[in-house]
Predict the structure of Nucleotide-diphosphate-sugar epimerase.
Amino acid sequence: MTTILVTGATSGPGAPLVERLRAAGHDVRALSRAPGDGRIVGDLATGAGLDAALAGAEVVVHLATNRRKDLPDTQRLLAAARSAGVTHLVFLSIVGVDRIPYFYYRDKVAIEQAIAESGIPFTILRATQFHSFPGEILGMLGGRLFLGGLKIQPIGVNDVATRLAELATGEPAGRVPDIGGPEILETRDILARLQAAGRAKKRVLSIQLPGTTFAAFKAGHHLAGLPGYGTQTFDEWLASGATK
């Protein structure tokens, strides 16, 4: 049995990862700022509770993100993990972060570098965007606009959790091969499927954006290629009723 601390344990692939690791007999600590069943309280933004959460932990799986201060949060986690004697840190990153000039992706690259230089044995996995990503983009654009001219390779959070569980219970491996979903879809096709499922308005304007960030996405730098690691298709995700 291994003692494993999971950050970001209550959302995305974090919840199914915790379930998989506990089902396999591991002692899993689900880090959260709010108390709850099966959780351990800690705050990456302040460092409060991290020492207690990490005491005796052998592995850390770092999934937490706030999209604005991820680098300093991770640096606090790394410092506490070093002090606690953690022997393996697993980090989930995103495919293409080193090739797409987006602020959030730049932070991911900086985090990868900080982990590599931390002295803690590590594994870094880059995955494509989750199935919920197109809907989130639609929401960010007010529900009436969508990004056209792109291809997306969405992957299910359960598939990502399966791979993370394998890595967390294995030996540190550095940067491992990227993973993506089982299909690459055009955004106009994804929009049509969202509309058919009642998850998008019937009238949505497809737009393209200027600049190097959109150009990098259009060039496909965020794709892992086929065949993908994931098994859940976008239609299967829609049919499941899941929103994340």
Summary: The chain has nine helices and eleven strands. The chain has one domain: 3-240. The longest strand covers residues 88-94. Residues 133 and 227 are 20 Å apart (CA to CA).
